[in-house]
Design a protein that fits this description.
InterPro entries: Aldolase_TIM, OMPdecase, OMPdecase_AS, OMPdecase_bac, OMPdeCOase_dom, RibuloseP-bd_barrel. This protein is an alpha/beta fold. The protein is built from ten helices and eight strands. Helix 3 packs parallel to helix 4 (94-107) and helix 6 crosses helix 7. Bound molecules: orotidine-5'-monophosphate.
């Protein structure tokens, strides 16, 4: 998956809305696209195969969280779709994380690269209060994220989903190769519109903090001019990335 390009979250309620969105882009342009639960429940594997055939790089975001056997068998099936990235919840535990990896390897066609396997630490919609009061965590949100990242790395996965605010600490603790995929992206001009996200940052700040991939939905899909918003976010992300590498 091309780290220079934001991953666009395709969160649409109908296939017509999705098609209308994709048709805004020049024909043949390769995009990083995230198919999440909404689109997958609507049109499932067929949609994923179509997007892959059109040359796009797909993050299949189904956040698997179940017993190891179920996750393993499901991953074996998903690995056959030709996607570039899939995810699970780190809270599923080490046996489930390892089972996910085994399932992916078993299902990847001979000669093909297995999809990157990423674990969600704490959702970017999660707050300090929720971690304390509902998860009854003995540690704060940042420490919980760091711990889940450690567990994920030890289980042999490729990286985590976290907020940009936690990416730097995770990279310092677990190394440059361990990937951080960060949703919760808002432009400075729409910081006030955090929607249901609680731990947010701009594309530039996410790059400065060490994020490897940004995932962006509504700031692009709901923009008056989605392609212009995508270009603006891409430019900001790429410029800040280049600075961090200089
Ligand atoms: O795994 C994800 O992609 C994910 C994890 C997380 O912690 N937070 C999060 O927002 N996401 C996804 O990232 C996208 C963010 O969308 P926007 O808030 O519209 O930019 C949504 O499709 C979420 O499902």
């Amino acid at each position: 998956m091309n780290q220079q390009l934001p991953i666009i979250a395709l969160d649409f309620g109908t296939m017509e809305e999705l098609q209308a969105f994709l048709e805004l882009f020049p024909k043949g342009e390769t995009l990083n696209l995230k198919v999440g639960m909404e689109m997958f429940y609507l049109n499932g594997p067929e949609l994923v195969r179509e997007l892959v055939a059109a040359g796009h790089q797909i993050f299949l975001d189904l956040k698997l969280h179940d017993i190891p056997n179920t996750v393993k068998r499901s991953m074996t099936i998903l690995a056959q779709l030709g996607v570039a990235m899939v995810n699970v919840h780190a809270a599923g535990g080490t046996p489930m994380l390892q089972a996910a990896r085994e399932g992916l390897l078993a299902g990847t066609p001979a000669g093909a690269q297995p999809p990157l396997l990423i674990a969600v630490t704490q959702l970017t919609s999660t707050t300090e209060a929720l971690v304390a009061q509902e998860q009854l965590s003995r540690v704060n949100l940042a420490d919980s994220v760091a711990h889940y990242a450690q567990v994920t790395a030890e289980a042999g996965l490729d990286g985590v989903v976290c907020s940009p605010l936690e990416a730097g600490d995770i990279k310092s603790a677990l190394g440059r190769e361990f990937l951080t995929v960060t949703p919760g992206i808002r432009l400075a001009s729409n910081d006030v519109q955090a929607d249901d996200q609680h731990r947010i940052a701009t594309p530039a700040r996410a790059a400065a903090l060490g994020s490897d991939f940004i995932v962006v939905g509504r700031p692009i899909t709901l923009a008056a001019d989605p392609v212009a918003a995508y270009r603006q976010i891409s430019a900001e992300w790429q410029a800040a990335k280049a600075q961090t590498q200089a």
